[in-house]
Every structure is written in C-alpha cells, then in structure tokens.
Amino acid sequence: MPRSHSQPYAISDLxxxxxxxxxxxxxxxRAWWQGAGHPLEHVADHMQEMLYEGAxxxxxxxxxGATYLGSALIISCDLEERPQYAPWVxxxxxxxxxxxxxxxxxxxRRAAEATFDLGxxxxxxxxxxxxxxxxxxxxxxxxxxxxxxxGLTVLTFSRGx
Length: 161
Ligand SMILES: CC(C)(COP(=O)(O)OP(=O)(O)OC[C@H]1O[C@@H](n2cnc3c(N)ncnc32)[C@H](O)[C@@H]1OP(=O)(O)O)[C@@H](O)C(=O)NCCC(=O)NCCS
What we know:
InterPro entries: Acyl_CoA_acyltransferase, GNAT_dom. Residues 9-161 form the N-acetyltransferase domain. GO terms for molecular function: acyltransferase activity, transferring groups other than amino-acyl groups. This protein is of the alpha+beta class. The protein has four helices and seven strands; from the N terminus they run βααβββαβαββ. The chain has helices at residues 21-33, 40-49, 103-117, 132-136, and strands spanning 10-13, 58-64, 67-75, 88-94, 122-127, 141-147, 152-158. The strands form two sheets. A four-stranded antiparallel sheet has the order 1-2-3-4, sandwiched between helices. A hairpin with a 2-residue loop joins β2 and β3. The mean pLDDT is 95. Residues 31, 92-94, 99-105, 127, 131, 133-134, 137 line the site of coenzyme A.
C-alpha cells in the first residue's frame, strides 16, 4: 500500500520515493554538516540507510509530484549525549519557498505518528532554543534544556497527545 497522502501535497516514505534522496542529502548537508567540514558524500551515503526495509531509520518527504517541498528523518540517535532516548525526529527541513504552509508541522506530526505505529510511546527531538516554540505550538513538551555544546533543548511528543 502506498505510504502517502494525496491532498494538497503528498508526504511519502522515502522508500517509496527514493529519487528524493540526493535533494534531501543536499539540504541536510547545507543546513547542518557543510559548516562543520563534512563532505556531501557522507550525508548522501547516510541517506541510503533510509531506504532499507525495517523499522529505523527512515525518512519522510513532502512533495508535489516530482517537486521537493520538505523532509524529516526518523533515526535511532540524534544526540550523542542522550543515547538513552529513541527514536528521534531529525533534520526537519522545508524549502524556503514553501514555508508557512503547514508542511513542517505536518511532517513532524507524521514522523511522530510513524514512531507510534512502530510501537514507541514517545518520540524525541532536539532543537536550538529559538526553534522550540515551533514544536511546542503543536504539542511537543520540553524534557531537558541546555544539553551538549550547542545548548539544545530536548522535546518529546507522546502517544495520545
Ligand atoms: C522550521 C521549519 C521546518 C518550519 O517549517 P514550515 O513548513 O514553515 O512550518 P509550518 O508552516 O508547518 O508552521 C507551523 C506553525 O509554526 C509557526 N512557525 C513556523 N516557523 C517557525 C519558527 N521558525 N519559529 C516559530 N514558529 C514557527 C508557523 O507560524 C505556524 O503557526 P500556525 O500553525 O499558527 O500558522 C522551516 O522554517 C525550516 O525548514 N527551517 C530551516 C530548518 C530548521 O530550522 N529546522 C528545524 C530544526 S530544529
């Protein structure tokens, strides 16, 4: 069965839309890895893991046909200081031209629901303090603040919220 919605745009499992992998690798690399000196190829290789059948990791892509809108990854560990938490919603990105359409919120919601479908009761996410309000506005709760060298906030979303 296809893992996507039809209106007004689709959110698909990357395993059903693998052609978006290079675009997502590009966005993730530019946003979070390029500045730290990591090569694009490392991120592109990591994206291939999103295509394996199995529980984690996996990716979601928001798209209108072949046009990429945004994406999120669901992974086992996003914060090395907190290996006890899992799974994580990570690398949430919406292209600038498509922001403020509700796509980011929809991606994060779908990502959390997907973790519940896998049997988890809580999904985790880490964010810079200035991004907290985006997540808190739709039900994410602060668990910890000022974690790690970047002072990240850990947020959780629980089944049934
Ligand atoms: C953060 C981001 C994913 C939001 O995506 P988006 O598709 O524009 O968000 P939405 O349209 O779903 O916004 C949902 C709500 O959050 C609000 N919002 C959007 N961006 C926000 C931000 N940066 N800070 C606070 N609130 C925000 C919107 O106003 C909207 O409120 P509403 O429902 O009352 O209208 C997007 O700006 C982005 O990709 N930024 C760069 C990457 C990034 O920072 N990712 C998050 C890493 S933790």
